[in-house]
Amino acid sequence: MACDVLVLGAGMVGTCTALQLARRGHSVALVDRRPPGRETSYGNAGIIQREAVEPYAFPREWASVFDVAFKRGIDVNYHFSALPAVLPRLARYWHASAPARYAPIAQAYSRLIEHCLTEHQALMDESGAGDLVRKEGYHFAFRTPAAMEQAVARAADLARRYGVRHALLDSDALARAEPGLRRPMAGALHWLDPWSVNDPGALVARYARRFAELGGQVVEADASGLRPVGGGWQVQTAAGPLAARHAVVALGPWADPLIAPLGYRLPLFVKRGYHRHYRGGPGLRLPLLDAERGLVLAPMAQGMRITTGAEFARIGAPATPVQLDKAEAAARELLDLPQPVEPEPWMGNRPCTVDMKPVIGPAPQHPGLWFNFGHAHQGFTLGPVSGRLLAEMIEGSPPVVDPAPYSAARF
Ligand SMILES: Cc1cc2nc3c(=O)[nH]c(=O)nc-3n(C[C@H](O)[C@H](O)[C@H](O)COP(=O)(O)OP(=O)(O)OC[C@H]3O[C@@H](n4cnc5c(N)ncnc54)[C@H](O)[C@@H]3O)c2cc1C
């Protein structure tokens, strides 16, 4: 079996890469050990974050660093056993978050985010996925006026520098917009540009179905046996070896174990996150970030999804959903939540890099090998544009944005 390109990993990033290549007429196999969209890209908050022009920085104020270190908030947790491996990476993450270093990172990031809606729109149109999406933005809600005031100043700054739009809702306006809320809030920022998807895994599955309609092969196989053969790349499948001139590593949080044996030591780590659904009750119209507690409430086809912030742990370490327990308690202050749908919470891994930018482009030492991973908090948002950029680089056609800031060679 042979094709032009093997795309390894069928999350949002890999599926969009495969679809973008197939739309351009290439023969592509999309390889995953599970059906498309069943890992991180299934369990996120489903927000296509057009407002997230700047990536999630490590806190720089000492008070916030101590909050993290002493696990004072619900938004961050860590395993002591993971610290020896993760601390050097967190130190680099903290270093990259200093204002002077962060500014060009944010500039580069915003150039990708700029295209997220148009690229999703094009794929949604082709895939018949319009029924999964709400184009009404989402709310950053605040419990205290002081927190709101700070966020309003930042939103005004982002509006000025990047043109992202928001509206301010006072306490009454938020209560009118979300009548299900059971306690008065100080107010909310309504980000107007983002979209939200009521079943993120289903959107990936629709993109994969479109890919198959265009002649792409969706192959269930383990990518870990990837090896160079005869000027190309090959993986083993149940039906025999599958070979191509190019291979794209789009394994999200699992990229490291595949590329490390090839000699790539990239500073990657994961931020784990949890979710659980709650069915019934008055619910919400739009997703809502409880900004001072650090949890998201997102209305989904499966029920109200509560998602948590970051947990620093080894990727395969047992689940410790302490943040979800606290997030559930905080959410119950805001909404009448019936009992959870699932007996156990879902857990996923945000694939992160120390400088907050994804890795998109050629593997520096292996012709025909390409990287597309490390999209951290916004991989669901960025899949289509990142996939387009990589497809253009493989083809050698003019890229939608300058790929230099995302090169693996920067580390
Ligand atoms: C709680 C939470 C909330 C989030 N909310 C948002 C949000 O609202 N908006 C947003 O933009 N982003 C959000 N994110 C981030 C987003 O979900 C991720 O950035 C994105 O899903 C990463 O996509 P991916 O395709 O790189 O990885 P994945 O979706 O994890 O895909 C990787 C694929 O590789 C496959 N794979 C791994 N190893 C192998 C192997 N050996 N062989 C074959 N296949 C393999 C896996 O099965 C998987 O399908 C959130 C994340 C979390 C955890």
From TrEMBL:
<protein>
    <submittedName>
        <fullName>FAD-dependent oxidoreductase</fullName>
        <ecNumber>1.-.-.-</ecNumber>
    </submittedName>
</protein>
<keyword id="KW-0560">Oxidoreductase</keyword>
<dbReference type="GO" id="GO:0016491">
    <property type="term" value="F:oxidoreductase activity"/>
</dbReference>
<dbReference type="Pfam" id="PF01266">
    <property type="entry name" value="DAO"/>
</dbReference>
<feature type="domain" description="FAD dependent oxidoreductase">
    <location>
        <begin position="4"/>
        <end position="393"/>
    </location>
</feature>
<dbReference type="InterPro" id="IPR036188">
    <property type="entry name" value="FAD/NAD-bd_sf"/>
</dbReference>
<dbReference type="InterPro" id="IPR006076">
    <property type="entry name" value="FAD-dep_OxRdtase"/>
</dbReference>
